[in-house]
Specification:
Largest sheet: 2 strands, antiparallel
Strand content: under 5%
Strand order of the largest sheet: 1-4
Number of helices: 11
Distance between the termini: 22 Å
Structural class: mainly alpha
Number of strands: 4
CATH superfamily of the domain at 72-249: Cytochrome P450
Helix content: 40-55%
């Protein structure tokens, strides 16, 4: 199978996105309450609420501010731009690693095919939300690919809003000063034998079976972050990835050819 890649200027794509977002946001600002009520509400509506109304966060200790704030128009456009680009690029990367793992593990590719047949997914029209959601093995497969190939781990940085002291797993204490920026080493965490077992570097979707993961630390799997700022598109990205894989497997088989060199 041959892949053709059409290269485009990143600046050009950014400019096109910016024009589209400006147009949509302008339409939303000018629509009536009746027009808004007739259409599906989306994430842009959530951002628009933060633009129109004062966001009262004075009773939330987790926020490092006591000043009610609403988004400016530029912040609204910038936020929607960030969500659009971040969701597309990181999901595409996850899909790529899933296809790589399918090619490297033909026996798992066969299991995915068998599961799609069990759920009567035989053509494009059968790919809907419920069918994709019910593909449990494929979901474990995607989660395992995200574990071994975390793509967006640099966005999990956090800044301490107060000085604190934490007890580490070996019993020693770690002091963190207020204002210190902390970035968890996710690629190391996701391959730590103390967390994932002796086969931590091997690809095994069944490690996400309930009986194999019920005692696992909730912060062991962090491809989408965690806490208040966990990726809002986590479930969407997983379902998009599953749907794309199913769509491709309806027509193609992925395998490693002799020309491929894998490190």
């Amino acid at each position: 199978m041959t892949f053709a890649v059409i290269s485009r200027s990143a600046m050009g794509i950014n400019e096109e996105f910016g024009k589209s977002e400006f147009k949509v946001i302008t339409e939303r600002e000018n629509e009536s309450a009746e027009e808004k009520g007739k259409r599906h509400q989306d994430f842009l509506d959530f951002l628009r609420e933060a633009q129109e109304d004062n966001l009262d966060i004075s009773n939330k200790a987790d926020f490092d501010t006591k000043i009610p704030k609403k988004l400016t128009r530029d912040e609204l456009i910038g936020s929607s731009h960030a969500f659009l680009l971040a969701g597309g690029d990181t999901t595409a990367t996850l899909i790529t690693y899933c296809l790589y793992e399918l090619a490297m593990h033909p026996e798992l590719e066969q299991r995915v095919l068998e599961e799609t047949e069990e759920h009567h997914i035989k053509n494009v029209d059968d790919i809907d939300y419920n069918n994709i959601k019910n593909l449990e093995f494929l979901e474990r497969f995607v989660k395992e690919a995200a574990r071994l190939h975390p793509a967006a781990y640099l966005v999990t940085a956090r800044r301490a809003i107060e000085s604190t002291t934490l007890q580490q797993s070996d019993g020693t204490l770690l002091h963190i000063d207020k204002g210190t920026c902390i970035l968890p080493n996710i690629p190391v965490i996701t391959q730590d034998e103390k967390i994932w077992g002796k086969d931590a570097t091997e690809f095994n979707p069944d490690r996400f079976l309930l009986e194999n993961s019920k005692n696992r630390h909730p912060m062991a799997w962090l491809p989408f972050g965690a806490g208040l700022r966990i990726c809002p598109g986590k479930n969407l990205a997983i379902y998009e990835t599953k749907a794309t894989i199913v769509r491709l497997l309806l027509e193609y088989k992925f395998e490693v050819c002799d020309e491929i060199k894998v490190k």
